[in-house]
UniProtKB/TrEMBL annotation:
<protein>
    <recommendedName>
        <fullName>non-reducing end alpha-L-arabinofuranosidase</fullName>
        <ecNumber>3.2.1.55</ecNumber>
    </recommendedName>
</protein>
<dbReference type="InterPro" id="IPR013780">
    <property type="entry name" value="Glyco_hydro_b"/>
</dbReference>
<keyword id="KW-0326">Glycosidase</keyword>
<dbReference type="InterPro" id="IPR055235">
    <property type="entry name" value="ASD1_cat"/>
</dbReference>
<dbReference type="Pfam" id="PF22848">
    <property type="entry name" value="ASD1_dom"/>
</dbReference>
<dbReference type="InterPro" id="IPR010720">
    <property type="entry name" value="Alpha-L-AF_C"/>
</dbReference>
<comment type="similarity">
    <text>Belongs to the glycosyl hydrolase 51 family.</text>
</comment>
<dbReference type="Pfam" id="PF06964">
    <property type="entry name" value="Alpha-L-AF_C"/>
</dbReference>
<keyword id="KW-0119">Carbohydrate metabolism</keyword>
<keyword id="KW-0378">Hydrolase</keyword>
<comment type="subunit">
    <text>Homohexamer; trimer of dimers.</text>
</comment>
<dbReference type="InterPro" id="IPR017853">
    <property type="entry name" value="GH"/>
</dbReference>
<feature type="domain" description="Alpha-L-arabinofuranosidase C-terminal">
    <location>
        <begin position="302"/>
        <end position="499"/>
    </location>
</feature>
Length: 508
């Protein structure tokens, strides 16, 4: 029925437990993410360690549970030994991936201190580009072994006698990409990843390893790269990585031209996002069967975001090139909300996800020396991270469809929901994708009604391109709205066009 949708929730009909690690971030040595982003000793807002206290507070609000580091493309040329020891003795080098100068003033110890302050689980990527499998194992020794060996003693000498116990380890990054330092064929990569994983596990049997999937669905190798790598490495990995970026206008495959602006298609891009996850989930099942394995491998969606419009940089080798500083708008926030809905709907296969990235570089936070502001995408990310927990519910939705050029007919309403059985904290996330049509949504709890609706927030507006800035930091935010009235096990809510709404419920 035009203008009307029905959502049915049943606390017994669930997808899976939600892994808290799907609310993760990514901090790469790139542009102004680390330097001038999280670490900025020259700023009046820096603490005694050089960490930006305003940035730290905003990152804490988002409640990131895992943080990938140090890259990205950067890691494929990174020598981790450059980043340890007295700061004044650390070398400066050209970081070839991003045409910048790496000062190494922020390295493994500084990252661990940052992660501990943030209360987030570190996820380290090892260099399988220029790096050897021995370098990878040495890094595990440095980070995780009790003292008594060369690298663990060096860690103690550098001020940290206790092992850091880093659990999650990415076996390289996007090794299929022609842009990657040390690009490889799938077979070659899988074999190197397996050898690295073996050595790393012999150092510390408690670690979890993550193999690289192909870098994008537009890559010629997708999804064969994924199939080959999964089949050859299945016994040695715990997670399989996937990356997905999109934008309006869509980039062409070569990323040198732009297709025309198409907001309807863009707002439906979670359809493509979801297909990507389904394809890789099928490749995982196939690899499991071929390996006659009883173990599960899960998806680690360790790079996802809206990207591709901003390039920047003046081509000079600098420590903090202003590259990839995307400015996000309302439609981007709505797209991010639909992708987060996808994570909940795919909670059975997606167990780690990291938004790329956390500050300045394609990120929810933008800084300058004396200030920062929260971009539009900060709000859906933070609402999901703080309210989606427990079980993902398998939601039944009846909604009008709308036509799109890229994805055909798609539902006007995109929904996910969660419920924490122990605390009774529930949440429903609703995106009205239409640019013009409001929607009345009837929510029905089929088995047990919530005791009450607790809170409600909404992001909406007439202009999909409205954005925040240093001058107008709160132009587009998620604002609290009056909590709709619960009528037994039913509630009716009106969703304006171009809107994202979060409702929280209490079931106890
Ligand atoms: O997040 C930016 C870059 O995107 C990463 O360095 C790389 O892995 C991907 O291509």
């Amino acid at each position: 029925r035009p203008g009307h949708a029905t959502v049915r929730l049943n606390t017994q009909r669930t997808v899976s437990e939600i892994s808290p690690l799907i609310f993760g971030g990514f901090a790469e040595h790139m542009g102004r993410c680390i330097y001038e982003g999280i670490y900025d000793p020259a700023s009046p807002l820096a603490d005694e360690r050089g960490f930006r206290s305003d940035v730290m507070a905003a990152l804490k609000e988002t409640n990131y549970r895992i943080m990938r580091y140090p890259g990205g493309n950067f890691v494929s040329g990174y020598r981790w030994t450059d980043g340890i020891g007295p700061r004044e003795q650390r070398p400066r080098r050209r970081a070839l991936a991003w045409r910048s100068i790496e000062s190494n003033q922020f390295g493994p110890h500084e990252f661990m201190e940052f992660a501990q302050e943030l209360g987030t689980e570190p996820m380290w990527a090892v260099n399988l580009g220029t790096g050897s499998i021995q370098d990878a194992a040495d890094l595990v020794e440095y980070m995780n072994l009790p003292t008594g060996t060369l690298y663990s003693d060096l860690r103690a000498k550098n001020g940290h006698p206790d092992p850091y116990g880093v659990k999650y380890w990415c076996l390289g990054n996007e090794m299929d990409g022609p842009w990657q330092i040390g690009q490889m064929e799938a077979v070659e990569y899988a074999d190197k990843a397996v050898q690295a994983a073996k050595l790393m596990r012999w150092m510390d049997p408690g670690i979890k390893t993550i193999a690289c999937g192909s870098s994008a669905t537009s890559m010629p190798g997708y999804p064969d790269w994924d199939r080959v790598v999964l089949e050859r490495s299945y016994a040695h990995i715990d997670y399989f990585s996937m990356h997905h970026y999109a934008a309006n206008p869509y980039p062409t495959i070569s990323n040198t031209e732009r297709l025309p602006i198409d907001t309807d298609s863009y707002l439906a891009s979670s359809v493509h996002f979801e297909e990507h996850a389904d394809t890789l989930a099928a490749a995982i099942r196939l690899a499991k069967a071929k390996n006659r394995s009883k173990r599960d491998v899960h998806l680690c969606w360790d790079e996802w975001n809206v990207w591709y419009r901003a390039k920047g940089g003046d081509g000079e080798w600098s420590e903090t090139p202003h590259i990839l500083e995307e400015q996000y708008n309302l439609e981007d926030a709505l797209v991010v909300a639909t992708w987060l809905n996808t994570f909940l709907r795919k909670a059975d296969v997606v167990k780690i996800a990291c938004i790329a990235q956390i500050v300045n570089v394609i990120a929810p936070i933008m800084t300058r020396t004396d200030a920062m502001y929260k971009q539009t995408i900060f709000y859906p990310l933070t609402l999901f991270s703080n309210h989606a927990s427990g079980e993902a519910l398998d939601v039944l939705v009846q909604a009008p469809t709308q036509d799109t050029n890229r994805h055909g007919p798609v539902p006007q309403l995109d929904v996910s929901a969660s419920l924490e059985p122990d605390t009774g904290h529930g949440a429903v996330f609703l995106v009205n994708r239409s640019q013009t049509e409001a929607l009345t949504v009837d929510l029905h709890w089929e088995d047990v009604a919530p005791r009450e609706l607790a809170q409600a927030w909404q992001m909406s507006g007439a202009d999909p391109f409205a954005a925040n800035s240093f001058e107008q930091p709160d132009h587009v935010t998620a604002r609290p709205i009056p909590v709709p009235t619960l009528d037994g096990a039913h509630v009716s809510i009106s969703l304006p066009p171009l809107s994202f709404t979060t409702l929280t419920t209490r079931h106890q």
